Amino acid sequence: MQILLTGVLLGGAYTLIALGLTLQYGVSRIMNLANGETLVAACFVTFWLYTGYNVNPLVGLLLIGPAAFVINWLIYTWLLLPLVKRAKNRGMLEVDSILATFGLLFLFQGLMLLTFGGDYFNYQFLAQPFSILGGSFGLNRIVAFLAALVIAIALYLFLYRTDKGMAVRAVAIDPRSARLVAIDVRKTAAFAFALGGALTACAGTLLSTFYTFDSSMGVIFTMKALIIVTMGGVGDVRGAVLAALILGMIETLVASFVDPGLTLAANYALFILVLLFRPQGLFGRRPA
């Protein structure tokens, strides 16, 4: 039970990473390979604010989330929108966006290595035990999970209870049909890309409260986000949440019963199994 709960707590933070990439790829049709670098950058900013200015990480969310939204909006407008305009079909846009964001990955990683070096970083925030069902868990993990849960619920209410959220879902389903009901597809795609970046940055802030991080680990989280999005189904919020929880539990089980060094191998194995047996996602249907 303690191992499963630990996996759920870890999966809660993974949920925000997956939701961020789900919005960017499912709505904007941008496969953002620099998604993990956004997360790592948020870890460093949170570390800097907490250790240098004693800013509580939960308060830091109110600064880092909006800042990441603006930065990702600018990235989409200046770098990716020209690719969208020239793309003749979805396949061409996906290839161009992969190449562009692959370059961004190394740019951001190089800037972080130049600024912070290759050392590992962490800090002490709510690092005290908390008892649940007879098991002892870090209070920082529990707080991070609850914060991620609140953000995920807020996103769900936005997508399913507001007109703007309905527009985002419409573009995700069929951009051409969305234009027929007066939805500005490009602005909606830019908004979804920026919102996805903000969610990923929030995930980085929460992970930094209990995770040791360094400048070059972003690609690992990008890979995890890809696994979760593939398992959950592109653009499917429900599937992304469930897949993130499953990945968190699998990592915890492998680390507890097999070897902590094999968690990455377990991630790859899960990715291959999903591609082979459930490529349409947990809630998707096979094409007729």
Automatic annotation (TrEMBL):
Main location as per UniProt: membrane
Topology in the lipid bilayer: Multi-pass membrane protein
Location(s) in or outside the cell: Cell membrane
Entry-linked InterPro entries: ABC_transp_permease, BCAA_transport_permease
Regions that span the bilayer: 6-27, 34-53, 59-81, 93-118, 138-159, 189-211, 264-283
Top-level taxon of origin: Bacteria
Keyword terms, alphabetized: Amino-acid transport, Cell membrane, Membrane, Transmembrane, Transmembrane helix, Transport
Pfam families with a match to the protein in the record: BPD_transp_2 (PF02653)
Keyword Transmembrane attached: yes
PANTHER family reported for this sequence: AMINO ACID ABC TRANSPORTER PERMEASE PROTEIN (PTHR11795:SF445), BRANCHED-CHAIN AMINO ACID TRANSPORT SYSTEM PERMEASE PROTEIN LIVH (PTHR11795)
Family recorded in the similarity comment: Belongs to the binding-protein-dependent transport system permease family. LivHM subfamily.
Protein name: Branched-chain amino acid ABC transporter permease
Source organism: Mesorhizobium calcicola
